[in-house]
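Final report, Chapter 2: Outcomes

The project's central promise was a pipeline that accepts a single protein chain and returns its three-dimensional structure in a standardized token representation, suitable for archiving and comparison. That pipeline is now operational. To close this chapter, we reproduce one record exactly as it appears in the project archive, with the input sequence first and the structure output second.
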Amino acid sequence: MYSKENIEIHIIVILEGTGHFQRGIHVYQFLKDEGFSVKFFVFYYYKKFTNYIKFFNYYESLLKKINSIEDFKKEQHKKYLLILDIRDHNPFYFQKYYGNQICGILCLANYYERSMNIDYHFTLPHPGLNMHIGEVLKNYLFPYSVLKSYYEFFSDSIPGKIFYWGDTSLLDFDISEIQAQIIKKYNLIQSEVQIIDYKNYMPLIEFYKIFLKSSFVIAYPGNVFYESLLLNKKLISFYTNSRMHNQILEKIMVDFQDQILEKFKISGIPFIFFDFSRNQFFPEPNNLWTSYFHIKNWIEKKFYEFKI
């Protein structure tokens, strides 16, 4: 029989973009605060660790050290619960590190060939997932540190507009020309517009001080888009050179066709203007905790199965 001290929870995320990493951090913070023994690992599949050094600086105070799963050495007297955010990669890949000491696997945002031996909790839209986007996003992992201080952000932050371009290597157009045209088209005040891309990422908390009060957002399907939908904002979206993001956008346009205000082009580039203030979501913090409690319940169920 295993004790709680002999079962570790390992969160493993893939370094493709930054979203998987950030979702893993949110779960890590939540479980630590709930008193669980939890460790955080990255899986370097395509990217090298050095490419992320600048991005990691903000999170070092939370993690103390960024650990690679490739460097992990199992302890014979322990069992391990794995929580994976690894996109479309094979979750059984990690058996080579843990052997038969895995006592449960929960996949977040993973759409690899399904297995009866793995539990799934779909937290993000995916082209291969036959569910309404709104139903999937009820499981979305809204940033944990933001949820804990949700209402505080509204007391001292300044309303604004966010143009979130993210990783501009995904774009086939010059953002400076496009954003100037959008500002003109919608009579926006330049000083109220916050431009954010990979060159000027800001700390998470600083971003949300602006984002939560912003009434107008530009983003492609990704975390900022999904959070804008959940929080009932007006949003302009666009296609990228990522096939998966574009397929998700097409699915959103079908599932939320009643929220489309306008389709337009600038310099031949198509844009879609959504008004999510008319959807059925409720932007109260209590309704954004659902996924965290689901994960906690899964862990407690596994502990029960091992008679802890």
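Archive annotation: The radius of gyration is 20 Å.
This record, like all others produced under the grant, will remain available to the consortium after the project formally closes.
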